[in-house]
Amino acid sequence: VIAFFQPKSLVGQHVLVSAGPTFEAIDPVRGITNLSSGKMGFAIARAAQEAGAEVTLVAGPVALATPRGVRRIDVVSALEMMQACVAEADQAHVFIATAAVADWRPDSAATQKIKKDGSGQTPTLGFVENPDILATLAQSPRGVSGDLFCVGFAAESHDLLAHATAKRARKKVPLLVGNIGPATFGQDDNALLLVDAQGAKEIPRNSKLALARLLIADIAARLASQSA
Ligand code: CTP
Ligand code: CA
């Protein structure tokens, strides 16, 4: 329970974490977002800091306190999150992508509040796809060489193992962590499925902080065996 008792398995490592939802503007007062609370990402940032890592947390709009000793960069949109993560990744050894990045953004945000015109007509929204932050960093030279160890997350509504395995391959990440449902957004506990090239193992249901500590210990062991 107390940070003092956590093994310092990540001393000398710089860990970058993305967390929370993104918010994609429609006009100055409206936008599209999702129900990610950011709790898992914040717990992971805290656990990494407790393990001795230098931690940078790139956070979308969430109502959570910054974990002690963690450097936090607040962003709003997926494009801002992408820019911040790319800029920080140069210094990082590990990237843990927990953010629920909006897959699409409105193709153009109105500069002024969209008004009803009295005719009962509804506005039509067009969308463009946002860049994939995790795939971009995993396929960057440091991601490919393993100097930046990239970890993805997946929240699926069904067939978690199959989807997580396919997602790991598609994103080209060494480790993909599945949230074992039902819907975990905002909840305080969860269970995780760790999928790597060897197969899958489960971390049974626990608080998000306990899971975060176990995941950080697991990642630290992977880094140690990589450099051994
Ligand atoms: N991710 C990201 N940038 C995006 C979309 C996703 O960095 N634009 C990251 C998430 O932070 C997560 C992983 O990719 O670590 C998987 O996200 P997910 O939404 O499950 O996968 P998608 O590839 O977007 O596929 P889909 O939503 O269609 O299942
Ligand atoms: Ca998605």
Automatic annotation (TrEMBL):
Q: Could you give the cofactor binding note from the entry? A: Binds 1 FMN per subunit.
Question: The DNA/pantothenate metabolism flavoprotein C-terminal domain covers which part of the protein?
Answer: 10-221
Quick one: which residues bind CTP?
Answer: D103, K113, P131, D132, I133, L134, F153, K167, K171
Reactions catalysed, as given in the entry = N-[(R)-4-phosphopantothenoyl]-L-cysteine + H(+) = (R)-4'-phosphopantetheine + CO2; (R)-4'-phosphopantothenate + L-cysteine + CTP = N-[(R)-4-phosphopantothenoyl]-L-cysteine + CMP + diphosphate + H(+)
Identify the EC number(s). 4.1.1.36, 6.3.2.5
Record keywords, A-Z: Decarboxylase, Flavoprotein, FMN, Ligase, Lyase, Magnesium, Metal-binding, Multifunctional enzyme
Q: What is this protein called?
A: Coenzyme A biosynthesis bifunctional protein CoaBC
Q: Which gene encodes it?
A: coaBC
Query: Span of the full-length protein shown?
Result: 179 to 406 of 406
